[in-house]
């Protein structure tokens, strides 16, 4: 195919004025006077032959100390992805969910997937990254007191019976480090799960479920004895769709109090 490229630039700019007075002014979160908030985004997509790519970057500028956590600059989003055939690799921000009990968190790192799209074929996904709410926390901008959390995982999914059924295996490891505050809880958690689905009546009745086990090593606070425990979780769901728009769902779930995600 011929090479094609798209590029989009966006800019959101706000100016706010606050006049703070009265006996409760010391408790307000507003900043006296004029403040500005500017968000600039750059995104695009395209291809070089059979290689497809996407990218998205967004930065913010502001002198509003309460809204921007004391910083005049921040990186809100950064992601670059490439796809070649059935393989996709994303670097930067991504969100991945293997199953109900495994990772469902935004990460900054690398995410790989190979999705065959065929019956009786194996789909493979793997990821690694840091679990920060925003990029500023990664380099401790503005003296942010945030512990480090790394997440790694892999998922194998086997499609069966012309995609009327599947079985999946997932493994996730979460590892905390770099305690910032004395009472910061640090976890090293391993989760293994099996999930499945079966379409008993095409487009009418589907049964799905998952069973997972976790093993946790917890450090409750600095200089405290570590705790180790394990837990299990199970869920089974049946969905019946006799006719549009009617849907009936039956769900059973049991989660051990010591199960951690």
Q: How is this structure best summarized?
A:
Helices cover 0% and strands 65% of the residues. The chain has 261 residues and is mostly beta strands.
Characterize the structure shown:
Helix content is 0%, strand content 65%. The protein is built from no helices and 13 strands. A 13-stranded antiparallel β-sheet has the order 1-2-3-4-5-6-7-8-9-10-11-12-13, with no helix packed on it. The mean pLDDT is 89.
The gross shape turns out to be: globular
User: Taking all residues together, what is the mean pLDDT?
Assistant: 89
The arrangement of helices and strands along the chain is: EEEEEEEEEEEEE
Estimate the helix proportion, in percent. Answer: under 10%
Ends distance: 44 Å
Task: Output the structural class.
Answer: mainly beta
Spans of 5+ residues with little confidence (pLDDT < 50)? none
Q: Enumerate how many helices there are, as a single number.
A: 0
Assembly category: single chain
How many whole angstroms does the radius of gyration measure? 23 Å
What is the number of beta strands? 13
Strand order of the largest sheet: 1-2-3-4-5-6-7-8-9-10-11-12-13
- Main pleated-sheet profile: 13 strands, antiparallel
Strand content: over 45%
Secondary-structure blueprint:
Blueprint: E1 4-18, E2 33-48, E3 51-62, E4 73-84, E5 87-97, E6 104-114, E7 122-130, E8 148-160, E9 165-177, E10 186-201, E11 205-219, E12 227-243, E13 246-255
Antiparallel strand pairs: 1-2, 2-3, 3-4, 4-5, 5-6, 6-7, 7-8, 8-9, 9-10, 10-11, 11-12, 12-13
């Amino acid at each position: 195919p011929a090479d094609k490229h798209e590029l989009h630039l966006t800019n959101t700019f706000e100016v706010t004025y606050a006049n703070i007075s009265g006996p409760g002014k010391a408790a307000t979160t507003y900043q006296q006077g004029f403040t500005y908030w500017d968000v600039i985004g750059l995104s695009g997509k395209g291809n070089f032959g059979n290689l497809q790519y996407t990218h998205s970057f967004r930065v913010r500028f502001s002198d509003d100390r309460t809204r921007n956590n004391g910083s005049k600059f921040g990186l809100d989003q950064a992601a670059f992805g490439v796809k070649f055939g059935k393989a996709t690799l994303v670097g930067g921000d991504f969100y991945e969910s293997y199953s109900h009990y495994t990772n469902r968190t935004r990460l900054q790192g690398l995410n790989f997937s190979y999705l065959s799209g065929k019956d009786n074929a194996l789909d493979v996904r793997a990821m690694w990254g840091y679990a920060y709410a925003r990029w500023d926390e990664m380099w401790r901008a503005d003296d942010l007191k945030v512990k480090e959390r790394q997440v790694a995982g892999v998922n194998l999914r086997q499609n069966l019976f012309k995609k009327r059924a599947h079985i999946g295996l997932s493994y996730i490891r979460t590892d905390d480090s770099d305690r910032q505050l004395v009472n910061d809880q640090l976890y090293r958690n391993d989760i293994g799960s099996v999930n499945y689905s079966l379409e008993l009546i095409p487009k009418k009745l589907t049964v799905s479920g998952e069973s997972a086990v976790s093993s946790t090593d917890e450090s409750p606070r600095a200089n405290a004895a570590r705790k180790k425990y394990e837990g299990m979780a199970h869920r089974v769901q049946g969905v019946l769709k006799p006719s549009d728009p009617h849907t009936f769902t039956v769900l059973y779930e049991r989660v051990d109090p010591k199960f951690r995600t």
